[in-house]
Amino acid sequence: MTLITLGAPTRGCPTAAFAPRGSSRPTRAARRQGRVLMGAGLALLPWLGYLAAALPPAEAAAWITLDTFEAAALIAAGSRLLHGDGRHRLPAAAAAVLLVADACVDLATATPGTELTTALAMAVVAEIPLAVMCAMLSARPPRGTCRTTSSPSLSPVPSAASTSDHRDAR
Fold first, then answer.
1. Using CA atoms, how far apart are residues 75 and 6, in angstroms rounded to an integer?
2. C-alpha angle 162/167/170, rounded to 5°?
């Protein structure tokens, strides 16, 4: 009888708990991406004040809530990248979804003219590129992890139909 453990580390592949102390040091690219995400998240904070002052209260509440979640996700993903923390993927995925939703709602609710041009520029220059970066960061496996399958391959148990087919074939 073989003991099967799901998700067990393979030989030569340390888990995060047993990884060498210096292995979580972020790469130069991760630090740059972390700074971009932190900067974008922090830049949204003054924007929240502007929205609160410029929009009617009911409309401001919706936009402030969306942008607050965006800022929190961007700051969380960016700070985790800066610290070499592999748990940046979930906030990066959330930020990607929120940024795409923000761009879509901005474009759908903008009136033709200057407002639509501004929404399009924001989507093309900031929101969509940040969403793509966040999506790529969320899909990339953490540095230093082994690429193994999470479950072992097991042979299928024959069904009653397949065993009767074998008997008929004899």
1. 33
2. 130
Produce one character per residue of 67-101: b if its CB has 16 or more CB atoms within 10 Å, e if not.
bebbbbbbbbbbbbbbebbeebbebbbbbbbbbbe
pTM over 0.85: no
The pair phi, psi for residue 80, each rounded to 5°, is: -70, -40
The tokens for 151 are: 């479950």
Q: Cβ contacts of residue 105 below 8 Å, gap of 6+?
A: 66
Burial of residue 103 (number of CB atoms within 10 Å: 0-12, 13-18, 19+): buried
- What pLDDT, in 10s, does the model give residues 137-160? 999 765 555 555 555 555 555 555
* Distance from C-alpha of 152 to C-alpha of 9, rounded to nearest angstrom: 12
Q: Please give the DSSP secondary-structure letter assigned to residue 17.
A: G
Q: In this structure, is the dihedral angle defined by the CA atoms of residues 132, 135, 137 and 139, taken in order, positive or negative?
A: negative
Alpha helices in 7-159 (DSSP H): 28-54, 57-82, 89-109, 114-122, 128-139
